């Protein structure tokens, strides 16, 4: 194997490694953003439920809070005063769109 072939192979492997690391970083950032949006939406909706507002209104507030760049509330359920929300965030990676999903729950905690 010639030196030129070795250098070209090493350079190609380095470029692929950097691309893979960048993609993993983008996925991690999208996941963190979706988690944060879900947490905030659940807290906002639960705050409204605890105040006695209708479930639809509370989930509407959660949807408004979750809405952001490529982020949308896709599910909101209320059980008693506990709200569970699902948020989806679209991530474009190498020309393909990947959906990142996050779920969060919020509500009052009963003291023992």
What can you tell me about this protein's structure?
By secondary structure, the chain is an alpha+beta fold. It is built from 2 helices and 3 strands. It has a 3-stranded antiparallel sheet with strand order 1-2-3. A hairpin with a 2-residue loop joins β1 (71-79) and β2 (82-93). α1 packs antiparallel against α2 (55-66). The chain is rod-shaped and about 75 Å long. The mean pLDDT is 88.
Give structural attributes:
3 strands; rod-shaped; 112 residues; alpha+beta; three-stranded antiparallel beta sheet
Which sequence of strands runs across the widest sheet?
Answer: 1-2-3
- Helix and strand pattern: HHEEE
Helix-residue proportion = 40-55%
> What gross morphology would you assign?
rod-shaped
Radius of gyration equals 21 Å
Report the structural category.
alpha+beta
Sheet-strand content, in percent, reads 25-35%
The number of E-state strands comes to 3
The averaged pLDDT comes out at 88
N-to-C CA distance: 72 Å
Low-confidence segments: none
Helix segment tally:
2
Question: Mind describing the biggest β-sheet?
Answer: 3 strands, antiparallel
Briefly say what this structure is:
With 112 residues, the chain is α+β, with helices and mostly antiparallel strands. It is built from 2 helices and 3 strands; from the N terminus they run ααβββ. Keywords: Signal.
What is the fold's blueprint, element by element?
Layout: H1 3-50, H2 55-66, E1 71-79, E2 82-93, E3 96-106
Antiparallel strand pairs: 1-2, 2-3
Organism: Aquipuribacter hungaricus
Keywords: Signal
Signal peptide: 1-19
């Amino acid at each position: 194997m010639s030196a030129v072939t070795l250098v070209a192979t090493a350079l190609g492997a380095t470029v692929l490694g950097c691309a893979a690391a960048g993609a993993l970083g983008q996925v991690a950032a999208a996941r963190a953003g979706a988690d944060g949006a879900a947490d905030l939406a659940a807290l906002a909706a639960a705050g409204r439920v605890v105040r006695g507002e209708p479930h639809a209104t509370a989930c509407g507030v959660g949807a408004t809070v979750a809405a952001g760049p490529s982020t949308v509330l896709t599910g909101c359920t209320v059980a008693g005063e506990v709200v569970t929300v699902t948020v989806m965030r679209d991530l474009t990676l190498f020309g393909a769109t990947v959906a990142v999903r996050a779920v969060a729950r919020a509500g009052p905690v009963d003291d023992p």
